[in-house]
Amino acid sequence: MINADKTSPMRARLRANLNFAVIGAFVIVLSVCGATTALAHSFLVDATPSSKEHVATPPKTIKLKFGGGIEPPYSKISIETPDGKVLGEGNVGVPGKPRELTANAPDLAPGKYIVRYRVLSSDGHIVEGNYEFTVDAK
Ligand SMILES: [Cu+2]
């Protein structure tokens, strides 16, 4: 019976597909384990401007640093007004710094702004959050 299976190309293909399914399940288990063993790894750990910061000069770039690697193509930073109007968006990675994500900021008049982010961390988890900063009047 097993010998008969081996001679059938279709069975062989089926078995190969099953192997892929097993590998896929293993990868999923690994990413779940990663989440429990390193709980804080992908949260925001540093930002420029930082949360609640008052800056005298409007920033040209928003830079976020996370506790773990992130995937820029599947991540986004947006700069918004407090009432939710999106002024700019970006998802530029930093070469050699897989935990950092930047976005070019539009010209910002004095006032309060919200930085909103949604990033895909390397282990497959989505991390979302927001904070505010203020550009002070001169
Ligand atoms: Cu994670």
Short description:
The protein has 138 residues and is an alpha+beta fold.
The major sheet is characterized as:
5 strands, mixed
Q: Could you say which structural class the secondary elements and strand pairing correspond to?
A: alpha+beta
CATH fold name of the largest domain: Immunoglobulin-like
- General form: elongated
**Helix content, binned percent:** 25-40%
What is the H/E string?
HHEEEEEEEEE
Please give the alpha-carbon distance between the first and last residues.
84 Å
Radius of gyration: 22 Å
| Proportion of beta-strand residues | 35-45%
CATH architecture of the largest domain: Sandwich
Q: What do you see in this structure?
A:
The protein has 138 residues and is α+β, with helices and mostly antiparallel strands. It contains two helices and nine strands. The protein has helices at 2-7, 9-37; strands at 44-48, 54-55, 61-66, 76-80, 86-90, 92-94, 97-104, 111-120, 126-135. Strand 6 (92-94) and strand 7 form a beta hairpin. The longest helix is centred in the N-terminal third of the chain and has 29 residues, at 9-37. It binds copper (II) ion.
